[in-house]
């Protein structure tokens, strides 16, 4: 579809029309119920663990049918009810103006003092963001359909050309900083061009990415190099998923050897609970975990300097992760986590510098790739 | 029983002349030389040396005790004569030029009452002898008991200043008063009259001209008016004392006395100079000591009052304590005297063997040939003819046996039989409780709180003596919230100011578990919080721990009754607190809805063009309907708002706390806040009270008035004022929804207060979206 290149504005117009209709329908329901003397209530699909289903067949987390009522006349939900309506109106304005806004922008647009009080409609962005997610799931519209985007986070470089918002970007010549991954990378605004890469190497954060990029890893190994600045945002995950699905590139992750690294991998692979409704667009069930592995301390003869003691919280998290349904029966992962726990310490990718400045890019990763020594 | 034992001893010493004190430590003396030193001690002499036993330990307490004894006597006399007491207490500073640091100074205490007066020939006996009085020999509820008080005060004055006591008394309205000055001879326990003449000067005019305040008041006829004092007595004692404010002060005493005696009017003219270092003392019931209040006096004139000088005006009551040029007037709140109490005979279960022997002996002397059968019936309460003859039989006597024939053994047998006999409890018509309504009223007058509860127990018995416990609590309002509570104690309507921790009532407060009623209470201590606890014991004989009558002895029966009374009050408080919480939540809830629907209507209009105004109105209607339903449910849960259990309702006043203040000042302490819901409760409570008793209709009907309560006479003014303040509030439409249950005929005029909705301080924390999504 990305290749057929229909008129972008035409497509957008249709999409916006659909979104607007959904918002108006929500408001109509509100006023109709009110005039009928019934209590206006929103039914919001629940984004919680209890309403998340592990779809074993597809290998992804999916959102269940559970919905939470958000009635107006309930002390607990009254304010949220109001906030939901306010955001509906804000988004309508955005769509009609044909503009997009950041999450923070939406927060500011809807923030004001409730008439006759000193109370704000929204006090913090933390209050506003979840309401937007509520709207996404309630309307069944994606964030970009609501004209809202998040901060750009994550970077891409490597043997691929992309067309981002009409500009052709050669990721082979993206400089030392690479090309920033926008929050919205849907085919209508972000297209793939020529691609020689055979796989995608995803690393956890910018510092590690810099090491790989400086060492021209993607050139030497014919791949695409990305990072997601820690927990990868939706834009980054969606891009990885498209690379995986559309270009059939394997996604190989190099993350820290700690519960957080494992968790990031889990989110890339299966999706997260809060975004379970988007899993089919975000999850990459065949993503691979190349390292760091708990066994590397011995296998790579790392020095004691790489060790960071596990905290109690780490241990707790590790055990929780081991109990995830997709890890629960996975012998490799059970072993990996057991090893981490028995080690009693965690390791960061940067720590590999202990063995040599470019040890990780020139020896460690290539060797493991060759040996196909990874977890999936 | 320490006091009666002591008294008996003293009595013997003065009357029988047989009991001499041995001087144990005189070495190397023979019986003769010792005998030369052995002599009679008069009671007066004894107490002159042991004045601390009577409450004259130090100058400050001496001043208080003098006032207290005189006021107690005045109240007793007035009540016995059926006169509504009007008592004026004047303390003159006789050394105004002394340095401020002086430890003590000379004062003249004068107490003037409008009582029946004293016939001339009794004056010396009453004021000049210790242990002379009408109250000691009987079992009757009265303030004084032993006949020590006022004469001891006179004696103290004489010892410290050498000045005689000055008495003006006018027993007959149509005849001139007596002016008598008398000094007590401590050796003979007799008064010596130094001046005795007739005078027309009663009430003494001099008092009206003492200060600018008294002059102002006497011009208005509000102090010592001859109309109010057609008869009466005035006592003046010069003494070495110390006038200071705070705990245990004359001010506190009068204030508390006014609480327990709402039927009396008190006027207090304090001395011009206050002794130093008063700052340390806690202010009295009023905690906002430093603040000045502007209060409209009876005449509508604004007088300035300072809390430190007098109890600040009580805002919600119709009769306000006022101060004019330093003179404090505690108005009369009730026009009914307490019921007259009957004198009773001792109950057999309460006597001791020695007393029984004594009684038999006295009976024989009084009435030769008295039969035991008659004696038992006449001299004891609750001994019927049948019981008397059974008792006689049981000890092997007949009904004809004469009292004189009772020997020690048979008396002892009789005593044991009496203890085992099944007898009805003593009669209780000898007790005059203050009464729940009066208690509430007294507390209401004296303490600025938001909730008052009172309970009055049924009479009970200790050692064969009937007694009755009453208790009241005041909660919230302007009381400080983080200090140990204040316990105010009364015995037969007399405040007890000292030795709190030795008092049975204090122990009862400590032993009561206030945590059950949502109050904080450290282990083994009184509860902490905005609460004042009052306990009153009424009895024909209050068992004090000492002659100065400062603490009630700790009998199990008494403490148990006290605890039961406290628990009753506590339950009422607990219910109230619980409901207050719910009500507050409800009103918050309503406010939340009201606030948000405006926004929702606007936003909805922006999306689909629905008519914002209509939408708003439709939602508002729903909000009201829904919260009204919630209110009803709440009532059922709360179990008190509707008229379910009238017994539960009585004994409670809920004050709609100075609404005007709360609305304009958002920083008032949390306990001071109130909501429409609370107002609704107030109305209901008022209705409940109305249903059962109309004794004090004015107070009860009008607690809804504005912050500056006014005397009932200038109703018009106050209503206007209140209306004005109501108008100044933001006109919300919410006022009506809160009064679902208050349609009764006694519903207070809703006009002054309906808009008094405290602007919402919704805690944002409560409404923050439940679980933040994001990661797990």
What would you say this structure looks like, in words?
The complex is a heterodimer of chains A (376) and B (776). Helices cover 42% and strands 17% of the residues of chain A. By secondary structure, chain A is an alpha/beta fold. Among the domains of chain A are: 8-38 and 75-149, Winged helix-like DNA-binding domain superfamily/Winged helix DNA-binding domain (Arc Repressor Mutant, subunit A), CATH 1.10.10; 151-254, Dna Topoisomerase Vi A Subunit, Chain: A, domain 2. In chain A, the strands form six sheets. Chain A has a six-stranded mixed beta sheet. In chain A, helix 8 runs parallel beside helix 11. The longest helix of chain A has 28 residues, at 8-35. In chain A, 43% of the residues are buried. With 776 residues, chain B is of the alpha+beta class. Chain B folds into four domains: 2-23 and 30-39, no CATH class; 48-330, 2-Layer Sandwich (Heat Shock Protein 90), CATH 3.30.565.10; 348-420, Helicase, Ruva Protein, domain 3, CATH 1.10.8; 574-764, no CATH class. Chain B is built from 22 helices and 18 strands. In chain B, a hairpin with a 4-residue loop joins strand 4 and strand 5 (190-199). In chain B, helix 4 (59-80) packs antiparallel against helix 6 (149-161), helix 8 (250-260) packs antiparallel against helix 13 (436-446) and helix 15 (556-608) runs antiparallel to helix 16 (612-638). Chain B is globular. The relative contact order of chain B is 0.08. The interface between A and B is large, with 48 and 41 residues.
């Amino acid at each position: 579809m990305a290749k057929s290149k229909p008129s972008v504005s035409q497509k957008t117009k249709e999409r916006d029309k659909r979104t607007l209709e959904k918002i108006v329908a929500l408001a109509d329901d509100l006023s109709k119920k009110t005039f009928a003397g019934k209590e206006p209530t929103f039914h919001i699909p629940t984004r919680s663990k209890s309403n998340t289903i592990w779809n074993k067949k597809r290998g992804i987390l999916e959102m269940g049918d559970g919905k939470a009522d958000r009635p107006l006349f309930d002390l607990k939900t009254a304010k949220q009810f109001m906030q939901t309506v306010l955001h509906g109106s804000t988004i309508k304005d955005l769509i009609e103006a044909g503009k997009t806004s950041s999450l923070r922008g939406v927060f500011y647009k809807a923030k004001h003092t409730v008439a006759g009080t000193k109370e704000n409609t929204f006090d913090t962005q933390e209050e506003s963001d979840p309401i937007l997610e509520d709207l996404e799931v309630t309307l069944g519209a994606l964030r970009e359909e609501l004209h809202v985007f998040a901060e750009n986070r994550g970077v891409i470089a490597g043997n691929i050309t992309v067309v981002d918002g009409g500009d052709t970007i050669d990721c082979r010549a993206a400089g030392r900083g690479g090309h920033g991954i926008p929050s919205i990378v849907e085919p209508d605004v972000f297209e793939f061009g020529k691609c020689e890469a055979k796989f995608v190497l995803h690393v956890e954060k910018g510092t590690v990415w810099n090491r790989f990029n400086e060492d021209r890893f993607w050139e030497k190994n014919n791949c695409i190099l990305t990072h997601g600045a820690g927990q990868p945002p939706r834009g980054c995950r969606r891009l990885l998923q498209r690379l995986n699905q559309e270009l059939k590139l394997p996604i190989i992750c190099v993350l820290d050897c700690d519960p957080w690294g494992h968790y990031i991998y889990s989110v890339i692979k299966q999706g997260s609970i809060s975004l379970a409704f988007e899993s089919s667009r975000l999850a990459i069930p065949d993503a691979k975990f190349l390292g760091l592995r708990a066994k590397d301390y011995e296998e790579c003869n790392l020095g004691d300097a790489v060790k960071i003691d596990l905290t109690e919280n780490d241990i707790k998290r590790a055990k929780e992760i081991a109990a995830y349904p997709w890890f629960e029966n996975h012998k490799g992962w059970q072993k990996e986590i057991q090893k981490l726990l028995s080690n009693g310490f965690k390791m960061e990718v940067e720590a590999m510098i202990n063995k040599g400045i470019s040890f990780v890019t020139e020896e460690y990763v290539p060797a493991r790739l060759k040996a196909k020594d990874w977890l999936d | 029983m320490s006091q009666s034992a002591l008294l008996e001893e003293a009595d013997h010493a003065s009357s029988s002349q047989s009991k001499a004190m041995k001087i144990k430590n005189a070495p190397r003396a023979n019986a003769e030389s010792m005998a030369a030193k052995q002599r009679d001690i008069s009671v007066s002499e004894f107490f002159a040396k042991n004045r601390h036993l009577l409450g004259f330990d130090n100058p400050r307490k001496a001043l208080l005790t003098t006032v207290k004894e005189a006021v107690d006597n005045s109240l007793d006399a007035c009540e016995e004569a059926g006169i509504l007491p009007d008592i004026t207490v004047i303390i003159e500073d006789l050394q105004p030029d002394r340095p401020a640091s002086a430890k003590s100074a000379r004062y003249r205490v004068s107490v003037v009452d409008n009582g029946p007066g004293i016939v001339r020939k009794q004056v010396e006996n009453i004021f000049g002898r210790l242990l002379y009085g009408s109250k000691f020999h009987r079992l009757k509820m009265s303030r004084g008991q032993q006949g020590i008080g006022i004469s001891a005060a006179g004696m103290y004055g004489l010892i410290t200043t050498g000045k005689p006591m000055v008495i003006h008394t006018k027993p007959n309205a149509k005849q001139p008063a007596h002016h008598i000055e008398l000094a007590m001879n401590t050796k003979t326990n007799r008064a010596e009259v130094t001046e005795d003449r007739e005078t027309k000067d009663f009430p003494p005019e001099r008092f009206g001209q003492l200060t600018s305040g008294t002059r102002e008041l006497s011009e208005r006829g509000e102090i010592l008016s001859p109309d109010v004092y057609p008869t009466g007595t005035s006592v003046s004692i010069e003494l070495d004392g110390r006038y200071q404010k705070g705990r245990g002060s004359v001010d506190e005493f009068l204030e508390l006395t006014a609480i327990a005696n709402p039927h009396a009017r008190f006027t207090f003219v304090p001395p011009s100079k206050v002794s130093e270092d008063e700052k340390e003392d806690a202010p009295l019931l009023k905690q906002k000591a430093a603040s000045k209040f502007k209060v409209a006096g009876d005449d509508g004139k604004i007088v300035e009052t300072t809390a430190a000088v007098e109890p600040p005006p009580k805002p919600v009551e119709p009769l306000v304590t006022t101060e004019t040029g330093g003179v404090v007037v505690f108005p009369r709140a009730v026009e009914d005297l307490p019921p007259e109490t009957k004198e009773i005979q001792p109950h057999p279960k309460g006597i001791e063997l020695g007393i029984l022997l004594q009684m038999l002996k006295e009976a024989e002397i009084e009435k030769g040939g008295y039969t035991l059968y008659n004696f038992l019936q006449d001299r004891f309460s609750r001994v019927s003819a049948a019981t008397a003859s059974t008792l006689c039989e049981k000890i092997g006597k007949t009904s004809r046996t004469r009292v004189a024939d009772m020997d020690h053994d048979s008396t002892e047998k009789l005593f044991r039989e009496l203890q085992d006999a099944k007898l009805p409890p003593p009669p209780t018509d000898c007790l005059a409780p203050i009464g729940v309504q009066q208690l509430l009223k007294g507390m209401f007058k004296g303490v600025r709180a938001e909730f008052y509860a009172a309970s009055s127990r049924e009479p009970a018995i200790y050692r064969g003596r009937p007694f009755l416990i009453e208790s009241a609590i005041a909660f919230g309002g302007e009381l400080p919230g983080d200090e140990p509570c204040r316990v105010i104690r009364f015995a037969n309507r007399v405040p007890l100011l000292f030795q709190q921790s030795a008092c049975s009532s204090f122990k009862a407060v400590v032993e009561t578990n206030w945590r059950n009623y949502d109050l904080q209470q450290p282990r083994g201590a009184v509860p902490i919080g905005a609460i004042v606890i009052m306990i009153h014991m009424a009895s024909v004989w209050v068992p004090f721990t000492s002659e100065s009558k400062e603490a009630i002895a700790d009998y199990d029966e008494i403490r148990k009754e006290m605890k039961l009374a406290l628990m009753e009050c506590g339950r009422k408080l607990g219910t109230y607190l619980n409901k207050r919480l719910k009500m507050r939540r409800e009103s918050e809830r309503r406010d939340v809805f009201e606030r948000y629907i405006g926004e929702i209507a606007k936003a909805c209009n922006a999306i689909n063009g629905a008519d914002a105004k209509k939408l708003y109105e439709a939602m508002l209607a729903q909000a009201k309907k829904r919260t009204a339903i919630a209110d009803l449910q709440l009532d059922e849960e709360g179990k008190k708002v509707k008229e379910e259990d009238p017994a539960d309702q009585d004994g409670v006043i809920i004050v709609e706390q100075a609404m005007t203040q709360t609305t304009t000042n958002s920083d008032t302490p949390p306990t001071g806040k109130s909501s429409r819901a609370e107002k609704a409760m107030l109305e209901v409570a008022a209705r409940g009270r109305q249903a059962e008793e109309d004794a004090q209709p004015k107070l009860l009907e009008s607690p809804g008035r504005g912050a500056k309560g006014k005397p009932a006479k200038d109703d018009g003014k106050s209503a206007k004022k209140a209306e004005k303040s109501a108008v100044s509030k933001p006109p919300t439409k919410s006022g009506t929804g809160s009064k679902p249950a208050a349609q009764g005929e006694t519903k207070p005029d809703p006009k002054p207060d309906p808009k008094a909705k405290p602007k919402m301080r919704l805690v944002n924390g409560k409404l923050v979206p439940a679980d933040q999504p994001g990661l797990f």
